[in-house]
Amino acid sequence: MDLSLQVGKYDIQQLLGKGATGTVYLARDTFSGREVALKVIEPEVFSNPEFGTVYRAQFLNEASLAGKLKHPHIVTIYDAVVTEDSGHIAMELLTGGDLSAHVTPETLLPISDVLQIGFKCCGALDYAFKEGIVHRDIKPANLMISQGTDVKIADFGAALLRKSHQSQTSAMGSPYYMSPEQIEGRPLTLHSDMYSLGVSLYELLTGSRPFTGNTMDELLNRILREEPAPPSTVRADMPRDIDRIILQALGKRPEHRYDSWAAFAMDLSNVVRLVLPADVISDSEKYVALKRVAMLNALADSELWELARAGHWSRVKRAIPLVKENEAGESFFFLAQGQVKVIRQGRLLNTIDEGECFGEMAYIRGGELPRHATVESLTDIMIAEFVPAALSAMSLGAQLALTRALVRNVVDRLELANSRLAR
User: Fold this and answer.
1) Could you report the per-residue pLDDT of 256-293, keeping only the tens digit for each?
2) Whether residue 222 is found in the same domain as residue 180
3) What is the 3-state secondary structure (H, E, C) of 281-320?
4) Which of 137, 150, 267, 283 is catalytic?
5) Which of residues 91, 123, 146 is at a domain's end?
6) Range of 56's domain?
7) pLDDT higher for 408 or 339?
8) Residue 318 is part of a domain; what is its CATH number?
9) Predicted structure pTM score
């Protein structure tokens, strides 16, 4: 194959894969130098007499989202060009494959990993829905592996754009993962994607689908009328607490499922503790702890994930010094769980509860002055330490929002101190 080819401003480097409607290449943007995954649609696809109109609509759907969806767990679409007879879409390059490689009993991921993947998908689909989008084709093959349990949702070609004025049908997607209302052609909300994610998690947890059939009619009839077997009856080492969560997501009617993506995500986060060692802190636990903090409300979802990843997280027993008076330091700390006490020259100055920060003066001053107090754990705690080098690697928007939050925290402390002096 001759790969000395240029499509628009992109130099083709390598063939990555070929599907029914297009070819995906590793390509280089000749303007920016960035490597991308370039999906190219050939003229014969759009001119197909039977499916050309559908393929074109799907491609236009995905192309219309270029630059609009910015979330750490959604594949970024950088650029799109559609002509009368062809087109191409430049996307974020991911080389880890997709989750369809982990849906057989021999290839299953650890249960905790699947639960964390589900948690992150909930956040991404919540974001997409708030942007007016129902994906309509959530399945393991459209969940791309970035790193570890970090996944990115791909292929919005079948997406229902709720703000679109174009006519769109509900009967798009993959039959095994379709919600009952999608099969019946009823209006779709976030609950349709919730059902599809439930099917995907069931398959990733057990190595089998909740519903199968020898014919399409048999499959669709089972989706509409039969109840799935609880996951714990399919996989022996599955905690039964997971059954309720997955089966609720698979409710036959939208009102039988979770009211919101946040509620679904919270249950997934809570149950992961049953399958992780006590000293391990999951990504979802970090995110939830930060999400609860009022002073971080200005941070977008993507910025909260940046902050969660920037911290050094640990669990600490009670009566352990965390920082010591007069020692050098430039990091600050976030107390996610428990309580600590602040001591200066042997005197108790204050207690700090979960959801608060301490040590921010040293961080703001850049470590120019020593710590002015000792901080010691009063209870068993979960804590995150943030050092300047990790924070400087965050986006400028996230750094600005965090700096504002820290300054607000210092001001609140000064106001508290002033009120105590006034008494």
Assistant:
1) 999 999 999 999 999 999 999 989 999 999 999 999 98
2) yes
3) CCHHHHHHHHHCCHHHCCCCHHHHHHHHHHCEEEEECCCC
4) 137
5) 91
6) 6-91
7) 339
8) 2.60.120.10
9) 0.90
